[in-house]
Amino acid sequence: MTKLLLILMIVGWVVGVFNGCGHLIKTHTEKYDNGKVSGEGNYIDGKEEGPFVSYYESGKVKGEGHYVDGKEEGSFVFYYESGKVKGEGRYVGGKEEGSFVSYYESGKVKGEGRYVGGKEEGPFVSYYESGKIKGEANYVVGEKEGKVIAYYESGKIVDEDIYRDGKCVEDCEENDP
User: Fold this and answer.
1) By the 8 A CB rule, do 116 and 92 touch?
2) How many domains does one find in the chain?
C-alpha cells in the first residue's frame, strides 16, 4: 500500500501538483513555432486559475491578468513590444467592469469608456494621437444611444448619426457602422 501511494504521489508530481483540497494544479506553457514561450499560467481541474502572462516572440510581456475559476478577474494590462502600456481594464467574473483605456505607444490616450457587467455604459471617446477627439458615442446597456459623432483631426464633424436602442434612426448613411 505504501508503494502504491508513493507511485501515485510521483505520478502526481510528474503530471501536475495537487493543492491542499485535492484539486490538480497544472502549469501550462504555450510556445511559438520557434520554441519561445508565448504564454503561461496555471490550471486547476482544467480551468485557468491565478496569474496568466502572454509574451511577444522577443520574450517581452504582451499581456498579463488573473483568472479565478476559469474567468478573468481583476486588472488586465496589455503592452506594446516596447514595454509601454497598450490598454488596461478590470474584469469581475469574466466580464468587463469599470473603466477601460487604450493608449498610443507614445502614452497618449487612444480611447476610453466604461463597462458594467460586460456591457458598454455611458460615454466612449476615441482620440487622435494629437489628443483631439476622433469620435464619441454614448451607450446604454451595451447599445448605442443618442448622438454618435466622428471628427476630422481639425475638429470638423465627419459624420453625425442618432441611435436609439443600438439602431441608427437619423442621418444614417449606408457605410455607417
Assistant:
1) no
2) 2
Query: Whole domain around residue 159: which residue ranges?
Result: 106-111+118-177
CA–CA distance, 88 with 75 (Å, rounded to integer): 7
- Rounded alpha-carbon distances, angstroms, from residue 12 to 6, 69, 97, 110: 10, 21, 37, 47
Task: Name the residue type at position 21.
Answer: C
Nearest to 146 by CA among 114, 123, 127: 123
Torsion sign (Cα): 46, 47, 49, 55: positive
Segment 39-52, tens digit of pLDDT: 999 999 889 999 99
pTM to 2 decimals? 0.81
55 and 36 Cβ atoms separated by less than 8 Å: yes
Q: Classify the C-alpha dihedral 40-44-49-50 as positive or negative.
A: negative
Residues 88 and 134 in one domain: no
